[in-house]
């Protein structure tokens, strides 16, 4: 969008990566300390040096799984690029990013559709192919996208791409009283295939918000999430969106 962006992330684990994998991956993003560089070249000999390298590896392992570090990296890159274009300095972003945990496939699907339909609902685009800077435009126009794939394997999103595109397209054709943008007035077709109730889907999408909730899921999932994250259940009540 013109003043913010949304991004849906899947955080993979690096727990099974060895020290070399961690350091090589971090090296592709940032420069390494001299000690880590020497480790990769096989020039480390003493126990004290090895112990220090292990500390670096543990820190980088954590950072590679951290949403905060990911957002720090991407926001810094955007800020530097924008300030260079505008020939100015200082803060570019108004505030820190906000995040939500998507606790099941339904929450994931709702969030993805919400994000992909942003330009449509804001009347910035007339159809999905014209929705600049969205993942759905990337998926429609590029067979070799870097985005997560669709399918039934553990590595893929748990939907079929054709069904997802059809779902978002048909959802975008439905009029919403609180939004001025839409695609057309046709009836949705692919909702049943993905297992969504068409009567509740639009209400769920309308009730979804990108800010204000720390997690999205069913009541039971929110209870479990509040326990895992040491949050009080009263906060879990506030987290509960229109997804039952």
Overall average residue pLDDT: 81
Question: Number of helical segments?
Answer: 12
- Overall 3D geometry? globular
H/E order of the elements?
Answer: HHHHEHHHHHHEHH
The largest pleated sheet is described as:
2 strands, parallel
Radius of gyration: 21 Å
* Main sheet strand line-up: 1-2
Calculate the terminal CA-CA distance, rounded to whole Å. Answer: 29 Å
Low-confidence stretches: 186-191, 233-244
Kindly estimate the percentage of residues that lie in beta strands according to DSSP. under 5%
Give me the secondary-structure category: mainly alpha
The residue fraction in helices comes out at: 40-55%
Q: How many E strands?
A: 2
Question: What descriptors fit this protein?
Answer:
globular, disordered C terminus, two-stranded parallel ribbon, mainly alpha
Task: Provide a concise account of the structure shown.
The chain contains twelve helices and two strands; from the N terminus they run ααααβααααααβαα. The chain is an all-alpha fold and 244 residues long.
3D architecture notes:
With 244 residues, this protein is mostly helical. The chain is 49% helix and 2% strand. It has a two-stranded parallel ribbon with strand order 1-2. The chain starts with 18 loop residues before the first helix and ends in a 5-residue tail after the last helix. The C terminus is likely disordered.
